[in-house]
Design a protein that fits this description.
The protein is mainly α and 219 residues long. 76% of the residues lie in helices and 0% in strands. It contains eleven helices and no strands. The chain has helices at residues 2-16, 21-38, 42-51, 56-60, 66-69, 79-97, 99-126, 142-154, 158-179, 182-198, 204-218. The protein starts with a helix and ends with a helix.
């Protein structure tokens, strides 16, 4: 029985791949990067993360490409867990909205949240405030993941929208209060960006169809 179930699961995943090209490519890049890093020494891994961190120093010297390469490294959570989360959340977004909208929201959250948080760090650095690190480690998938999750919840039914967004906001706010890390503040920013993205013209048709379904349910 277990073999049959596993084969069915594999067939289901393979059947979904043609419908999820953006998710497939991105997850593949994450897996390849993770596999390469696991084969390297600790020092080489640290060097790779250092050179691909989208921090104040790199942005000041024109290394804007780190805004994108920083999203190839899973940081802060077990690698396979992080990649699985991306596959589920981004895959669902692409399934519902298509590759351009789905990955667009993910990239919007990742890039803009990074720019805003690093912009705040840059201002702190200019003001010589304590804790302002121009060469801080800043890599990971979490900003894009939070933004996409928030957008999915914001475009869901009323009950899911209220409960989901409230729970996510409380969870991220508690993490920020406890850790007081810039990344935790960035997660709250990414949440706001995801909700903002759901209000854009890109998703007008989805908001309208969801409102129609809610109206039909009430009627």
């Amino acid at each position: 029985m277990h073999g049959v179930r596993e084969r069915r699961a594999v067939r289901t995943v393979l059947a979904a791949v043609p419908r999820l090209p953006a998710t497939t490519v991105y997850v593949t890049l994450l897996l390849v990067t993770a596999a390469w890093m696991s084969s390297q020494s600790v020092g080489e891994q640290a060097r790779f993360v250092r050179h691909n961190s989208s921090n104040v120093h790199h942005l000041e010297v024109g290394k804007w490409w780190t805004l994108f390469t920083s999203g190839l490294v899973v940081d802060g959570v077990p690698v396979l867990l992080g990649i699985a989360a991306v596959a589920v959340v981004l895959g669902l977004a692409e399934w519902r909205w298509g590759g351009i909208r789905g990955f667009g929201v993910f990239l919007f959250g990742h890039v803009v949240a990074t720019l805003l948080t690093e912009g705040a760090m840059w201002l702190m650095h200019l003001a010589h405030l304590p804790g302002a690190l121009s060469r801080a480690r800043d890599v990971g998938i979490s900003y894009g993941l939070v933004a996409t999750t928030a957008c999915l919840l914001a475009l869901a039914g009323r009950r899911v929208r209220l409960l989901g967004l409230t729970a996510l906001t409380v969870l991220l706010a508690v993490a920020w209060i406890i850790d007081q890390e810039l990344a935790d503040a960035g997660h709250l920013v990414a949440l706001g960006l995801g909700v903002l993205g759901s209000r854009s013209r890109w998703f007008h048709s989805y908001r309208r169809s969801e409102a129609a379904r809610e109206h039909a349910t009430v009627a």
